[in-house]
Amino acid sequence: MENYTLKDFTLQTLRTDAIDRTIQFKKWHKQAKQNNHQVFWTKAYGAVKPEMTIEDPSTGLKRKVISFVSNDYLGMSQRPETIQAGIQALQTYGTGACAAPSIGGYLDIHQELEKEIADFTGQEDALVFSSGFGVNVGVLNALLGKEDIAFIDSQVHSSVLDGLRGTNTKNIGHNNPEYLEFILQNERSKYKTAMVIIDGIYSQDGDIAPLPEIVTLCKKYNALIYMDDAHGIGVFGKNGRGIAEYFNLLGQVDIITGTLSKAFGAVGGFVACSKDMADYLRLHANTTVFSSSLTPQVTCSVLKALELIKTDKSILQKLWDNVNYFRKRLLEEGFDIKQSVAAIFPIMIRDPYKTYEVARLLKERNIYAMSIVFPAVVNKDSRIRVSLIASHEKEHLEALITALSEIDKELHIK
Ligand SMILES: Cc1ncc(COP(=O)(O)O)c(C=O)c1O
Fold it and tell me: Over 60: is that where the pLDDT of 2 sits?
């Protein structure tokens, strides 16, 4: 059977013009369609939650599935309290502020959310943006220029890379403080600002940054720390305040960014930092300066989610019960999940074609989990990505383990 990967396509078309490339893309897409591999977006009917309905790519019919694709870690998108808070905001403020915050779209509820996020993350101040992707692009563009350098972990999110086009960068490998020190020793003095950029929890492997070592090194070499805590905030630490709380380092990270689309169950993003830096960003982070404010509904639903996170610890406990149970079961069954410690589990398949096959066979068994292949990861790191949330039940987790074990008999994925 032909096996033409997305990476083959990318390499072959590097030097073609844009129109040629779109035409040649059909070769790869045709192959995927013939093999019933779902490579484009899967259509869902209704809410994205543990039991949901999607369109079956091979028949076009609706299929009820158990789903492991949502990052709504605490189930906040479906809670009556967050929904009610959103409805009230719609009635009070309407559907949008319809202006950028800098030119009239800044509401009292935006300021309230900024204060709540600053307090929750242990920082002096915070700004909210209409996407987490936009936070990284806007903040990094505003802070780093031609005389500066970003030392970046090799597995940071693509939004970080998009924010660094106007500055110097150096790859520091992955979770490797010794190598970071070597680079800081050699490179730090050549630049004005040095910034070490990490994720708190890495979005594909679910592993955790060695924050204590990084804090020590950044102090020693006078570098700023920038931590994207998209997958840590709301999930890690005794009170869900993220990776800084988990390591008892609240207030020690210069810049923390995150999304409102995961533990907070909505959409949007934030940066939390010093008051001076926040004020500078209010007029220099273009992805908020020139972009309309977060909607009132989202703002109030997130405020309610934060209140629930702070007052009802049983929600976080339920997530961790699921995560600990599922990790134990996967390891008992012999699956390779790399160094995952979070609610994200990479089920390593290590071949892109086989990964699409596994996703297809899972769907046949009414299980919905994402295949992750190039360019999100290199071909040999292709995997099925499983994301657990608090509202999964044990039966959902067991159904996935049973399906994976059955597929293993056919495709040998362990
Ligand atoms: C580590 C990380 N940073 C940033 C983002 C972007 O966040 P958003 O979905 O709010 O744009 C994501 C989302 O997938 C992420 O995983």
Answer: no
CA dist., res. 53 & res. 231, Å (int): 25
Distances (CA, A) of 330 to 81, 281, 291, 351, 387: 34, 44, 43, 20, 14
Neighbours of 278 (CB within 10 A): 20
Entry pTM: 0.94
Identify whether the C-beta of residue 372 lies closer than 8 Å to the C-beta of residue 204.
yes
Any idea where the domains of the chain sit in the sequence?
6-13+31-73+313-411, 80-311
Closest ligand 1 atom to Cα of 201? 1
Q: Quickly name the fold that domain 6-13+31-73+313-411 has.
A: Aspartate Aminotransferase, domain 1 (3.90.1150)
77's tokens:
């998108």
301-314: pLDDT as tens digits: 999 999 999 999 99
Mutate to test the pocket of ligand 1, among 73, 133, 298 (most ligand atoms within 8 A of CB): 133
- Cα 137 to middle of ligand 1, angstroms: 11
The domain made up of 80-311 is a member of CATH 3.40.50.10810? no
Atom of ligand 1 nearest to the CA of 199: 1
User: Which residues are known to be catalytic?
Assistant: 203, 231, 262
Q: Which residues line ligand 1 (CB under 6 A)?
A: 131-133, 157, 159, 199, 203, 228, 230-231, 259, 261, 269
